[in-house]
Amino acid sequence: MFFFEKKNQKTFICLAFHCRGGDGGSLGKSLLFRKDGASLPPRQHGRRAPICGAMPEPIALYVHWPFCLAKCPYCDFNSHVRERVDAARYGAALRRELAHEAERLGEKRPLASIFFGGGTPSLMPPEVVADVIAEARRLFEPLPDIEITLEANPTSVEIAKLAALREAGVNRASLGIQSLQDKALGFLGRQHDAKQAVAALEAARALFPRISFDLIYARPGQGLEEWRAELRQALALAADHLSLYQLTIEPGTRFATEYARGAFALPEGEEAAALYYATGEEAGRFGLLPYEVSNYARPGAESRHNLAYWRYGDYLGIGAGAHQRVTRDGTVVAARRHRAPEEWLSRVEAEGHAVTREEHLAPLDRAREALLMGLRLSEGVSPARLQARTGLTLAEAVDPAMLTACLEEDYLRWTPEGNLATTWEGRLRLDALLPVLLR
Predict the structure, then answer these.
(1) Are the C-beta atoms of residues 200 and 157 closer than 8 Å to each other?
(2) Is residue 99 within a helix (H) or strand (E), and if so which, with residue range?
(3) Residue bearing the bigger pLDDT, 435 or 20
(4) Of 35, 286, 344, 367, which is least surrounded by CB within 10 A?
(5) Integer angstrom CA distances of residue 147 from 27, 115, 169, 244, 263
(6) What is the rounded CA–CA span in Å between residue 95 and residue 257?
């Protein structure tokens, strides 16, 4: 069984509402695996069922920039603070690794999206971003409406680059706002204040066809009405997409140390659930629907890149610590790369790639991953697509008795389209439901 790391390709399986990070685009969080690194019970299906369908689906590309100005106390992503970064050298390595992966695919695949995540990719020189985009366009067949997202923080240094990043080819900005309150931003260790956050949103809206930003809530001492007021302010500023994550204590972070010694407490149980329900209510009043556990959008404005993850599509990941899932020889192949930027760089320059582990996933592993990701979506999991992507039927992938029980308890439901989806109650319990539901 293959192991994913944590979130830097932000399809993270911090299940239910216990998630936070960027708009999701960078996928380096764990998929099939518990947050302590242990896998689910390895029941293998013995055969390697092929992927159905002759025509390859469009692929998504994740590009990881691992460098930050400072490490936030809640952050367990693959991010690093360095006094000096050779951006041109790192950019050249990104292009080389991308060329290596394109050659291995053996065909010029359609490219649906590019996502620059981190770290803080808005620290990248715009010319490096432009060169990576140009190389991706050369190696693949970009769709006419290709989505190209870059994560940015609302500091004055980074916001000054937005126009140049737009000229480089980025057409969607994802801003790490995190809060619109100065006190909360200080607690979260952010490098900007609320005034800069609003200015960044206004600048991004003027430059990019699409924007998103994320907020962290369920902070220490945050009451329900306080959160509603902050969220309404954010929704009034939002264009079409918002990512809303409850603060989670991740092992190895500064917050984990402080939390363990009782420096602060977080909302739990019914209090946390009330915050989650209020989030959906307020977003709905502004026309943003919860298309995923922590992501809200106007119809048609969903993150296409993240949907590739959640619908269990193919995606490439390049850069330090990046992960990927691609279809080769009729099955899904998982790969991960060196996390340390310096080690990744030297490996790519020497060998053309920095993959540390690669594995052909067994059908049951693929089905588990597809269900873990797909049940985060409001649309749910299509049994037909599940079988096409994994070779297994839904009945082969889940425990029938547990499925019946979850449906009877109103944690799961069948959609009018015939998909298996979670209810609001089910999303609150998703982390508990999945281990018993999956075979």
Answers:
(1) no
(2) helix 87-105
(3) 435
(4) 286
(5) 16, 8, 10, 21, 42
(6) 38
- 336 - beta bridge partners? 323, 357
Q: How much of the chain is helix, strand and coil, in % rounded to 5?
A: 40, 20, 40
Which two tokens mark 312? 């269990």
Residue the block writes with tokens 């092929």 = 50
Query: 29 with 5: CB under 8 angstroms?
Result: yes
Return the number of other C-beta atoms located less than 10 Å from residue 63's C-beta.
29
Asked if residue 317 has a cis previous peptide bond (ω within 30° of 0), the answer is no
Assess contact for 334 and 351: CB atoms under 8 A: no
SS3 399: coil
How far is residue 71 from each of residues 120, 265, 286, 322, 364, measured CA to CA in Å?
10, 21, 33, 19, 37
Q: Please, is 36 exposed, middle or buried when counting C-beta atoms within 10 Å of its C-beta (0-12, 13-18, 19+)?
A: exposed
Return the CATH superfamily for domain 1-361: Aldolase class I (3.20.20.70)
Q: Is there a contact between 359 and 45 (Cβ–Cβ < 8 Å)? A: no
Token pair listed for 295: 């992501």
How far apart (Å, rounded) are the C-alpha atoms in residues 159 and 203?
A: 8
Q: Three-state DSSP class for 54?
A: coil
Mean pLDDT of 238-255: 93
| DSSP code per residue over 300-366 | T-S-HHHHHHHTT--EEEESTT-EEEEEETTEEEEEEE-SSHHHHHHHHHHHS--EEEEEEPPHHHH
Strands (E), 128-232: 141-152, 172-178, 210-217
Res 45 pLDDT > 50: no
Q: How confident is the model at residue 415 (pLDDT cuts 50, 70, 90)?
A: very high
Dist CA 309 CA 9 (whole Å):
10
In sequence order, the 6+-apart residues with CB closer than 8 A to the CB of 235 are: 242, 282, 283, 285, 286, 288
Distance CA 41, CA 90 (A): 38
The dihedrals phi and psi of 4, each to the nearest 5 degrees, come to -90, 160
What percent of the chain is predicted at pLDDT more than 70? 87
Q: For 249-254, which contacts have Cβ atoms below 8 Å and span 24 or more sequence positions?
A: 249/74, 250/6, 250/35, 250/74, 250/75, 250/76, 251/35, 251/36, 251/76, 252/76, 253/73, 253/74, 253/75, 253/76, 254/71, 254/73, 254/74, 254/189
Per-residue pLDDT, averaged over 129-157, amounts to: 96
The domains of the chain are located at 1-361, 379-439
